[in-house]
Amino acid sequence: MNIDYKINQAISAEQFADLLRRSTLGERRPVDDAECIKGMITNSNLVITAWDDETLVGISRSVTDFHFCCYLSDLAVDLSYQNLGIGKQLQIKTQAQLGPKCMLILLAAPAANSYYEHIGFKQNDRCWVLNRSEKIKI
Prior knowledge:
single chain, alpha+beta, Aminopeptidase, 5 strands, 26% helix, 24% strand, Acyl_CoA_acyltransferase, acyltransferase activity, transferring groups other than amino-acyl groups, transferase, GNAT_dom, Acetyltransferase (GNAT) family protein
């Protein structure tokens, strides 16, 4: 199997949502909200995709300034293509696009939490999340 990796290859919201459904991320992403999915993919400024011929099988979707920090928002690999090193290659290729001082930051899916330490990430207990349904207390 020859997987082809592409940097900032345009993909449709439908392709993105379909891949999320075929991965473990579909259950934690708004795959049935077409407007949100479209905004997620069109407003990302670093997208690395993995292709098996014409089939999108993986994605690393990030928002970054390329110099200080890169938030890797989605790392998804089709379930039938997992454990082949595609996710790791997507991260390597993402990091290769960043400046030498740029941190790669992500929030791990519960089932993948132990994976990231194995490949060199350091766990940080200083992350805070405010969901959109919540308001900043005044």
